[in-house]
Amino acid sequence: MVHLKTHGFLWLVSLSLVPTRVFCSSAEIPDVPNIAAYFGTKTRYEEVKPNLLRDPLAVNTSVLRPPPGEFCTPFHVTAVVRHGSRFPSAKNIRRIHRLSELLQKDASRTSEGSTGWLQELRTRWEPWYTEDMDGLLVRKGREDLQFLAQRLATLFPSLLSEENVRKRRIRFVTSSKHRCVSSVEAFQEGLQRHWGCHDDAPGYSHEVDDELMRFFEHCRGYVEGVENNRTALLEVEKFKHGEEMEAVRRRLAEKLGLSVPLLTPDLVEAAFLICSYELSIKSIHSPWCFLFDESDAKVLEYKSDLKQFWKRSHGHLISSLSSCPLFHHIFRTLDKAGRPRRSTEAGPEPASILVGHAETLLPLISLLGLYKDQTLPTASNYHSQHGRSFRTSRIIPYAANLLFVLFDCQRGPRLQLLINETPLRFPDFQAEDAPLYRDVRAAYRHLLDGCDFHRECEGRAEGRGPNTEL
């Protein structure tokens, strides 16, 4: 592999000179509910990266961390990206309307706070969501991906370069869902905006591949063993009707002036989600947010995390194994980018952008062995789980991204992992940010040589049970 020291030096200098932009003062930042950091997979990206509220193009170049004593330059990045902020699903829209009707019809007029925010809910708040919105990307969601693209182009100027954009050297793959297609288009718009491509900008160029980005739908072992298996999420159901959720439900019913039996756990969650949607879609502090304090939000976040853990993550082995196609695709891409080339051969693909869902990222993250706590979360250990690393609000907000960055270094290619533009170390390499790529491959040899999608998804039923090796 060729080492271009001059270019590497210029890359480092160019990063150190990235100007700081100030988009708005602290006084102009919209009021943010104190429960905004607990919305699970409905969390805004800005709750994970709050500096973006002041400047959505702010970039911290120090997150790229090859060994300081070794000359390195990045030569490939693969990014697995979740779609941006979206409208609620049709199911949640129906719940929102049911809650609004219940409040109008059955709430006591003398309940606590009826002259303040509760009065606003009754008289001025309208359930403006319609079922045809079902999961579509919102304007804020397009901005999520446009800004992400511009920040990554600043972080990797030689990879997401104007030339690579114009000559279509960057590969884009997306799920077929409308919110993902809109997101990959927005990402391309962001790159074109960053480099000033306007009248002569290339059109959208992306592949739709559901076997890669919606692998979970194609894995029979997952569909039968988890998705359609009512016992697979038993811990979630227990917690949903347990003492912590019951306490939240009673407090909420009292505030709304409703009898407790009318306010089901699903409607409690609907109220919580309205607060999250109003923030992520409209950037407003909804009156619904005043129903919950931080302790309530933590309970509801934990309920969401239990669902994601037992449905998409470490709870069942088949959930992570279903992502084998994506895992192999990423490492084949990295292998191809890192192999030696003759001087007459074309250079490696500079970047691969793969846009999918929370359901795409979580199984892959789990397969890599990330965010695997010593004690698995259950319905009965909520109070001992406050320090858990598995918090979907932090891991998988809207526009979440997992970056695999290959560096050309003096000792050979190195690989660094970043999640949401923050360094994350591989489980077997806790002492270094960018281990040698050959060592990373060796650590995952059991998956690279195995992890056969057909065998895992169509094979033994016993492989689909709970993961007891946590």
Number of discrete helical segments: 20
Shape: globular
Q: Provide mean pLDDT, rounded.
A: 89
Distance between the termini: 40 Å
Main β-sheet description: 7 strands, mixed
Strand element count: 7
Secondary structural class: alpha/beta
Instruction: Determine the fraction of residues in helical runs and give it as a percent range.
Output: 40-55%
Low-confidence stretches: 1-23, 462-470
Describe the protein in words.
This protein is 43% helix and 9% strand. The chain has 470 residues and is an alpha/beta fold. Strand 2, helix 7 (178-194) and strand 3 (207-208) form a beta-alpha-beta unit. The chain is globular, with a radius of gyration of 23 Å. The protein starts with a helix and ends in a 12-residue tail after the last helix.
